[in-house]
Specification:
With 562 residues, the protein is mainly alpha-helical. It contains 24 helices and 6 strands.
């Protein structure tokens, strides 16, 4: 394949992609690999909603009390011994009549039971497993007075994510994107296999915390690598196609796998044994040449780009490689001696402004997305079908993002999708008694918030220069995990008012939508490699929330040459 003509003395990595191929066999293979690892993101994100699910339950009736009652029908027995709860409009899940002083409990059918004292469950709980499965919540009786524990285990997961994001963010910028990718996925594999062996609340929380340390680095490190390897006109495609396929399909299959096996431990092993795929990664995933250049490892970067050219079937002139190598050496010499840290994200005015708006928007979008995902359990329909349909909606939303992020732009994609989600949540609070309509609105909301999540994820990487992309992404994700820490509590706020989770999620989306107006537009632009490039690239955008999306003419030219 012929290469573009060049008369330039300087060739940066984005321009080199025009010669070695910014979309060829190498990138397609990497995309396929990324799809496989995006399934793991679906497993980590979705599976706790299922294996912490609590089916209907009631107080177990002690055998000595059953012996007192001459009923062979369990429903009749429960009608006698379990009071009615008007709040949930069925038998109480946590209380029973205290009939220890009554000789014949069957008299309760004839006499007024209002004078019979009520007590908490004293003999454990009975679960209605008809059509359902054994979950961690049912195994450990995390119900009633202990109903806070499932949400707390999720919060512990995000507490681990805060620590892990900082740790692996440092690894990403000091030991490489590849090292961060391998090590975080190794942690995911070990903790994923270990989770079913937890034998109580403390051990379960500990393993969840350790698994959290790998989140979301096990995915974002490969996501970052892949975006750095493709031409800018393919970033939206690569950034969203893997999510469309793996998050949608990975979500759809999970409830039915769990229903088929009937036990959360087997289900968990089926999902997380797949993470052993990390052992095959070295044959397909390579270190980022951009990162290698910033560390002065020019020869290693040259070896990789030459391999990419060979894989893509490109016959590249040595002159092109020599110009790229000279440019890389010059770039390294200019940055040599600069010991950059995440604090440098805030030393220059334009980058500081963009990073601050990006972090706040990303944090709000993340907690709204995660909260809405978990709020499925508060819908009044089958967990299997609501979960499946909600996951299916991921696909059209991700596919639309491939088109919308380039045609509408990143900024307005975020603004409109977040505001659309706010409207669905606001209307839901007004028609809350109509369970079917609320469920339909929740599915529409899933479409909007998925689109918003994809947009914010891409912006979070594109506004930060290569020198600090790992630490910048880590910093943004730290704040996202801090906000996600409260997502399970938002869902649990249903105990105060069943409308409250919808209201809180809607308000969060509205705030994120307003803040997105102040984000820079990154569609059609080269990824900045240095702080200076980031300053120059976005300085003309100012802080105008209504600046129209317009690609850089020079960028269009470079795209057309690809």
């Amino acid at each position: 394949m012929s290469e573009p003509k060049t008369s330039k003395d300087k060739i940066d990595f984005d321009e080199l992609l025009n010669y070695i191929g910014g979309w060829g066999k190498f990138q397609i293979t990497l995309l396929i690999m990324m799809i496989q690892f995006t399934f793991f993101l679906a497993y980590v994100g979705y599976s706790p909603i299922l294996y912490l699910y609590t089916p209907d339950h009631w107080c177990s009736i002690p055998q000595e009390i059953q012996n007192k009652v001459n009923f062979t029908n369990m429903d009749d027995l429960l009608d006698v011994l379990i009071p009615y709860d008007p709040k949930i409009q069925k038998r109480s899940q946590c209380l029973m009549y205290d009939i220890s002083g009554i000789d014949d409990p069957s008299d309760l059918l004839l006499n007024n039971s209002a004078f019979v004292p009520i007590t908490k469950c004293t003999n454990g709980y009975t679960y209605n497993f008809t059509g359902y499965f054994h979950s961690a919540s049912t195994e450990f009786d995390w119900v009633c007075d202990d109903s806070w524990k499932p949400a707390f285990t999720q919060s512990m997961f995000y507490a681990g994510a805060i620590i892990g994001t900082l740790l692996f963010g440092w690894v990403s910028d000091h030991r490489g994107r590849y090292g961060s990718f391998i090590s975080s996925n190794a942690v995911l594999m070990v903790t994923g296999i270990a989770t079913p062996f937890a034998n109580g609340f403390i051990s379960f929380c500990t393993i969840r915390f350790l698994m959290g340390t790998s989140f979301i680095t096990f995915f974002i490190s490969l996501y970052m690598l892949t975006l750095e390897y493709v031409s800018k006109d393919k970033r939206a495609l690569v950034g969203n196609l893997s999510l469309a396929i793996a998050m949608s399909l990975g979500g759809c299959i999970q409830p039915w796998i769990l229903k088929a096996v009937g036990d959360w431990k087997i289900f968990h092993h089926i999902l997380f044994c797949q993470t052993a795929l990390i052992f095959a990664a070295p044959w397909f995933v390579k270190e980022s040449p951009r990162w290698l250049i910033t560390k002065g490892r020019i020869d290693e970067a040259m070896t990789i780009v030459q391999e990419i050219a060979k894989t893509n079937g490109r016959d590249v002139s040595p002159i092109v490689f020599n110009k790229f190598k000279a440019s890389a050496l010059k770039e390294f010499e200019q940055s040599k001696g600069k010991n950059l840290s995440w604090l440098d994200l805030f030393r220059s005015p334009v980058l500081r402004r963009n990073v601050c708006f990006m972090i706040i928007n990303w944090s709000l979008t993340s907690v709204v997305f995660d909260g809405h995902l978990r709020n499925i359990e508060n819908l009044k329909f089958s967990i299997y079908w609501t979960f499946t349909i909600s996951s299916m909606i991921e696909f059209p939303s991700d596919m639309l993002a491939i088109w919308g992020l380039d045609k509408i732009g990143r900024k307005w994609s975020a603004v409109l999708s977040l505001f659309g989600f706010f409207l669905t949540m606001f209307v839901s609070t007004l028609v809350f008694e109509n369970f079917l309509l609320v469920t339909i609105l929740a599915m529409i909301g899933r479409f909007f918030i998925t689109y918003a999540m994809n947009t914010s994820a891409q912006i979070s990487l594109e506004v930060v220069p290569t020198q600090l992309r790992g630490q910048g992404s880590a910093l943004a994700n730290v704040f996202a995990q801090i906000s996600n820490f409260f997502a399970p509590q938002i869902v649990y706020s249903k105990v105060i008012d069943e409308r409250l989770p919808f209201l809180l999620l809607g308000v969060g989306a509205l705030l994120a939508s307003i803040l997105a107006l102040f984000l820079p537009e990154t569609a059609g632009l080269n990824l900045p490699d240095t702080i200076e490039e980031a300053e120059k690239l976005f300085e003309t955008q100012g802080c105008n929330p209504f600046r129209k999306f317009k690609s850089n003419p020079s960028d269009k030219k470079s795209i057309s040459n690809a």
